[in-house]
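Shift notes (night). Ran TauD/TfdA-like domain-containing protein while the centrifuge was going.
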Amino acid sequence: MPESIFTETKIPYHQKHYNGDFFPVILSPKLNITTLSYDITVFTEAIKAHKPWLESLIHKAGAVLFRGFHVTTADDFNDVVEAFGFEELPYVGGAAPRNIVVGRVFTSNDSPPDQKIPFHHEMAQVPKVPAKLFFFCEVEPGKGGETPIVLSHIVYERMKEKYPEFVERLEEHGLIYTRVLGEEDDPTSPIGRGWKSTFLTKDKNVAEERAAKLGTRLEWMEDGGVKTVMGPIPAIKVDKSQQRKIWFNSMVAAYTGWEDARNDPVKAVTYGDGKPLLADIIYGCLKIMDEESVAIPWQKGDVLLLDNWAVLHSRRPCNPPRRILASLCK
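Came back to this:
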């Protein structure tokens, strides 16, 4: 096997320690980037050569940040994603307004950058979720705009300790998510994806068929929009690869962030039996997520790989410019 070009680095105050392990793991080139420039081909070939080791890192840590590897364009980022060899997952059923950039790469969320996006597992409200997420910083924000991440099993453990009856009820009933979609995308909203792009069709009958496969019921509205009702969906799942329970839901994201001209976030999520959730517990959960989260400021060229079963992510507001690209994998 070729010699590895990777070395693990530390960023003080921007990593957590759990059982002696760092979260996230940060990998940089072994040699100083000013004395030897690793181009994109060297990086992608190193990924292919050391894929089992890299996969073991992501399995153990939940998140790996690659920094300093001269990933400069969307095409470079697409090459990095391809080098890992994970199968692509189409973005069907998600809420974020996004646009394809190149290959398997799209914009992460086209909503205004001054809006916060709360913690969530990607597409947690649909049956088929991505196993891996890639993010790439094409244009770093001047201030703010971080992507905080938090380990899902840590959130579950702390919630079960603080709110045992609530967690028990979640495990019994799950959650129902309700969201109203317009016909077309609304880039002013963080959940502004219209039903045509959500279900990749302009045909209402096809949309209903695809929604049914996602466990979603559609209620058509006079203005051409549609109310989507998803669930009941389990809110606590088991990460089989780690044999531990995880906080796998969009409860906080829906209750605190699913707000626009069509949606009232308080009505966006309920228990699986239709009864309302308690606001103080939801905000208590948000506090736990904030306390346990890590938010490394983006630098141009950063590539962040997340295990979507292990890690929730969010977005802090910022002033433009900021351009973060993404890719989803099975």
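The domain at 6-150+294-329 is CATH 3.60.130.10 (Double-stranded beta-helix). Residues 65 and 304 are 4 Å apart (CA to CA).
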